[in-house]
Amino acid sequence: MNDVWKDLKFFAEHLRALPVSESIALGNNGGFCVSTNNEFENWIYYPEQVQDIETVKNAMTFFGRRNETFMWPVFDGGNNILEAAGLLHAGHLEAMSLEPSNAVRDRVNPSVKMRAVTRETFGQWADCEWSAFEYGEGEPSAEYLALVKAFSSDESMSMYIAEIDGHDAGAFLVTDEAKLMGVYYFATKPEFRRKGVAASMMSGICRLSGGRKIVLQATPSGVPFYRAFGFEDLGAIEVYSTRADIF
């Protein structure tokens, strides 16, 4: 669990540094709120259990002024103070890790090819992710495109697209921390699911890791795939928000 928490902190700190982001410190223990001015990627990083309602109200005010939904992950069980302040328990993510040598790659599709995304091709990644996560009909929003463009300028974040028969089929982002590789935005477009695309992308991530441990936070629907690929369950990350339907 410590490795997943370490990588989430790494990811949140880099989100905070993006030119599209705004943030405030939360308490005096290194916690913070980060808004990317985007509907899909707003976080609270807080390294310990909250002890006072005022801290929670400060976070709610920060996001409330922006009319944004956010995620507040808690690694060591629920938190009554968050609920007392008016936040909802929005479900949980599963912390998971994989040693690349333990990967089960029997569902890899050799027809799937991987390509790295550049500052010039970030829009293709945005299109693929928008469709894969079914964020909405039509093209990605301007705010989402701005966020993805910012990702492409951060050398600690690398984006990839998986293609099959010349069609973009899935995509993901990895963080490049010294001893860990974190996986984010891992998704396959609906029309390409159950064709070995996800297994092929994860096999590619194993290669990119250079032998480093791979960590991620899985939604409940994604857990069976990651387990089948060889990931180990590390425990639940409880998530709080102003909405109960954020997954």
Which properties best describe this structure?
247 residues, alpha+beta, eight-stranded mixed sheet, three-stranded antiparallel sheet, 7 helices, 11 strands
Architecture overview:
30% of the residues lie in helices and 30% in strands. Helix 4 crosses helix 5 (142-152). It has an eight-stranded mixed β-sheet with strand order 4-11-5-10-9-8-7-6, sandwiched between helices. A hairpin with a 2-residue loop joins strand 7 (157-164) and strand 8 (167-176). It has helices spanning 2-17, 53-64, 80-84, 122-132, 142-152, 197-209, 223-229; strands at 22-26, 31-35, 43-45, 72-74, 88-98, 112-116, 157-164, 167-176, 180-188, 213-218, 232-241. It is globular. The longest helix is centred in the N-terminal third of the chain and has 16 residues, at 2-17. It has seven helices and eleven strands. The chain is α+β, with helices and mostly antiparallel strands and 247 residues long.
Oligomer: single chain
Widest beta sheet: strand line-up: 4-11-5-10-9-8-7-6
Report on the biggest sheet: 8 strands, mixed
The total of beta strands comes to 11
Rg is 18 Å
Structural class by secondary-structure content: alpha+beta
